[in-house]
Amino acid sequence: AQTVTQSQPEMSVQEAETVTLSCTYDTSESDYYLFWYKQPPSRQMILVIRQEAYKQQNATENRFSVNFQKAAKSFSLKISDSQLGDAAMYFCAYNFGNEKLTFGTGTRLTIIP
Amino acid sequence: GAVVSQHPSWVICKSGTSVKIECRSLDFQATTMFWYRQFPKQSLMLMATSNEGSKATYEQGVEKDKFLINHASLTLSTLTVTSAHPEDSSFYICSARTSGLAIHEQYFGPGTRLTVT
Fold it and tell me: Which of A47, A107, A109, A113 is surrounded by the fewest CB atoms within 10 Å?
């Protein structure tokens, strides 16, 4: 079974600085999708970024980028120029085919003004 | 686009009663809907997957007779918590997925907070 591991329960970063959230996963598949979701205090799940495993290029979305290391099964999220609105729980997730999403346990990110 | 709504956003019910939560896809046809449960400071736990017109597939350990899921149309799925008890108090989130190119994408509703007294 696929598993997703987020080893950092909590992280904090100074406003305007850069922070990296870690995620590793386990799968025997070669073509799959990886996601980072943000859950702010409102608890609405928001898709931050998506990576398709067959694409070698790392996905970027404005201040958010990933470091996708397929061989190492690692999928970290880098947030540049951190803003107060980035404070949230961040979940890494894996999806293969039309199956369900497998979520990590989450990382709570605090932004220090 | 790709908006999912949930109703109600917050509900209190008495122990022993049933409560229904609706999940609607507002601007797309949801061939598959998912129901999650989330305890405070924890990750999302998938309860069941439902495909339009079919019976829901429940995850191991989820009581199908207690958590009734209906996906009667391509835009509506409902979760009914039957004979609710205080331990059923939780945050329930639905998500929806369409077929085609965006099949890997799930769109989440805003969640429903259930409190059973």
Answer: A113
